[in-house]
What does this fold into?
Amino acid sequence: MTKTNRFSLSARLIAAALCVASLSACTAMVVGGALTGAMVAVDRRSSGAQLDDQGIELRAANRLRDQMGNRARVSVTSYNRHVLLTGEAASEAAKAEAEAVLREMDNVGPIYNELAVTNSPSFTEKASDGLLTGRVKAGLVEIRELSANAFKVVSERGTVYLMGRVTQKEADMATEVARTTKGATRVVRVMEVLTEEELARVPVAK
It folds into this structure.
């Protein structure tokens, strides 16, 4: 990818984050525009794992909504069956219960329970997190040695969560990008670290 193309993609990523943060009618631009084509590229998960991740997120959302009600606001992010829980719970008991719901589900691997026992974030906080995610993604695109599509980025109250199947070098470089991004207060790595040999054997899904 040329420097010009990387800059253009970075700008689109930040624009997409701003659209989400403002809840404006930007869906057509993000989904139907060049951003989608640029980001639909190499995925280091198998096709089966990608389908499993989608199923985990959907089933978990439904079960948590039915069982937890307003006692928790949980966002579920699954990458290669590694599941990250972010959001808020009304109590430590509710936080533990949300994790228990996931443990009862099939195909769920390691669970990283990052739920905060606190009140729901304000609109401003949500907007800041959306912008932060866009900035981190844009920063990853700017690093020539990284495949930005190998990472999934989630932001919650200034904490950046990095998911993906990456080498130690890639993990360290991405962590530095996230750590130095404006608005980031903490970086949590929820990544599968592979050796170069293991990465070479990973089947590429497109």
